[in-house]
Specification:
101 residues, 0% strand, 5 helices, 53% helix, mainly alpha
Length: 101
């Protein structure tokens, strides 16, 4: 998600979208992910991020996320959106906030 937020304000993105990243922490995370995914080529990956609700306000956000995923080697990408009751969401969101502190 942070990768998308770094790239969203760039006027023109390279065809190889990951070349537009400059944040060393994000570049390091990409390299770690590439190594991990190489070890598990035959597995399915599931990514979950509730923060997308708050941070992705345009179609461009989702398009950048798709380009990143494709560049990382994913060919079948499914975006699943689910709705939940407010109390359940708030409980989960607070728990996630606590984990990132």
């Amino acid at each position: 998600m942070d990768i998308v937020l770094e790239l969203i304000n760039k006027e023109k993105l390279d065809q190889d979208i990951l070349k537009d990243l400059s944040d060393e922490k994000l570049l390091g995370a990409i390299e770690i992910f590439k190594a991990e995914s190489a070890l598990h080529k035959d597995k399915k990956f599931i990514f979950s991020a509730e923060g997308i609700v708050w941070d992705f306000s345009t179609k461009k956000h989702v398009e950048i996320l798709e380009k990143i995923m494709r560049e990382l080697g994913f060919t079948q990408i499914y975006i699943i959106v689910y709705l939940r009751d407010t109390l359940g969401y708030l409980n989960s969101h607070c728990s996630q906030d606590h984990k990132t502190i």
